[in-house]
Amino acid sequence: MNLNYLIKSTIAFVLLFSFSSFTPSNEKWVNLLDKNLSQWEVYQSFSFTNSFKGEQPKDESGNLIEPVGYNKNKSNVFTVEEVNGEPVLHITGEIYGCVFTKQEFENYHLTLKVKWGDKKWEPRIEKLKDSGLLYHSIGECGVDYWRSWMLSQEFQIMEGHMGDHWGIASSAIDVRAFIPEGNMNTVASQKQPFLPIGPGTGLDGFCLRSADYESPVGEWTTLELICFGDKSVRIVNGHVVMVLQNSRYMKDGKSIPLTKGKIQLQSEAAEVYFKDIRIKSIKELPEEYSRYFN
């Protein structure tokens, strides 16, 4: 993220804003992670240099440097390790990019565990460790500012900011606002309006979560994402931290629904681990979460 991100995190009024499709008939949990990353593909753009600050870098002759590209996994940025008999995805963060699912998904409940490693890379040596869970991902990688990811909605994974919203490329969404002293479980918070975030709304595609529920350093944090239709709910260690609806993207000045797509996990200059990545289909938004949209 950039300086804007840190500045906005100090505002007094915080916003709670801001798939072939997967539809198994038995609605059971499906494990998305194995030792061979068989359900995922890889994309890498660039390592950070002084010439790579969001724009495609150039060599000494002024020629554009091409991204690493798809499924090359330079420097083994993405590996699966077996820890206590279970697969753990290790992302070093050294090169910007992502792993992304081969399948598209819609109407689902996704859960995973995440934990930080020790390494950081430029340009985030002096910044918070950063990654992200990107959902409703469509099109080609590299369309965003860092030339690394697909158009999508970002469930932020960042030290002290688990669950924030970030819009990738031209994505937009409406996020339920709340007063900082409020709580997602209070009636008053639930009755706050939804605010449109992203291109064409007058507000940048960024928003803070309701509160910080990240686990202590060295421990796993459980993230859950529930998506149904144009709605989504983000949950950190059992706490609802963001409620969003009207997921969409802009193309040629027109608003297009964005309700399904692939899932991306970011490599963003910080070492991070993921495990227990599971997903199941849902036929409706569970009642305990549908109330947030009333």
From TrEMBL:
Pfam families: 3keto-disac_hyd. Residues 28-280 form the 3-keto-alpha-glucoside-1,2-lyase/3-keto-2-hydroxy-glucal hydratase domain. The keyword rRNA-binding does not apply. Keywords: Signal. This is 3-keto-alpha-glucoside-1,2-lyase/3-keto-2-hydroxy-glucal hydratase domain-containing protein. It comes from the Bacteria. One of its GO terms (molecular function) is hydrolase activity. Residues 1-23 form the signal peptide.
